[in-house]
């Protein structure tokens, strides 16, 4: 018996509620309620943010190394980095400086620090790694990477010779950048930053103005921070990289400017999906699918600018496969991300804490609703598929990092049809 459809489930994480793996499992549950014998290929996608280190460790036979470090508010947090199977390391900035580590009532992008990121890089060097990948995403900071550089030995002084306190806003008082104590091992280390190339440090599209409000900044605070980062870019360039554009080069604004700070000391800024999707054979998996379902916490004008659903849509278009997206919220510009259809998780108004707590349930229900709508559409085009199964409890499909999952009511035995418009005969 063949599956009625092959569906690739390729979501990112839903901030502060579901990892990419958990999101893929929830979507799979909803899809199987409608098509119990569908073949689902679960491909949870990390973007450098939460879950990146764990996912890459699992994919390479590596491990997570616990390492307490300084959190975004300056207090110690339980954190760690990944040692991969090839001996390289992954530092996930969200694990030590992510927005989820900053309580809502204490969010201020001008006060938080990336100091812990530098501590994790140093710990990875202590463990013998000479190739370190820093994943950028889900940050709660906007200090231009100043904290990370301080942890790696750079001194940042005001006019009186005192060390600057944590936070990007203090950079307006920066008078001296002293690189004399920079960890010498960096010179022999391949330091890579997986980042969104659309994010830049300064200017009208700089991180303070674009992302500062999401991190708790008032308009006045964000403008103050924008001025501070302009000063920081000039100081970094003079100290480390004369002639290099650390203001507006692609990726310099990654994770509140961490990209610029690390680039100044020799890191290479790379488009995150080129780095993080290696080894997934995503093009071939999309090419075998009849439908792709993706998702993330929000769909808006930023989706097409390096977010998971936008990247999935781009690659699916190349494969000629339609894409459905599920999101916690739909903002302005959601329809411009190249998606064929999209659906909000919430069936009606919900308080944010309740929506976050029920994210898996809401995502499964949204997947079911959306797929039933898709199947109605195929009937309207005059090519009716076999009747969808009545709603049933289904079973959450195990993902464990991805892989093919078959509906519990029937395994796949023959190749799937080439397009969603013509399901395989029974």
Automatic annotation (TrEMBL):
Keywords: Kinase, Transferase. Signal peptide: none annotated. Its EC number is 2.7.1.31. One of its GO terms (molecular function) is glycerate kinase activity. It comes from the Bacteria. It holds the Pfam family Gly_kinase. Residues 388-399 have a biased composition (Low complexity). Residues 414-426 have a biased composition (Pro residues). Residues 384-426 are annotated as: Disordered. InterPro entries: Glyc_kinase_flavodox-like_fold, Glycerate_kinase, Glycerate_kinase_RE-like, Glycerate_kinase_sf. PANTHER family: GLYCERATE KINASE. Belongs to the glycerate kinase type-1 family. NCBIfam families: glycerate kinase. This is Glycerate kinase.
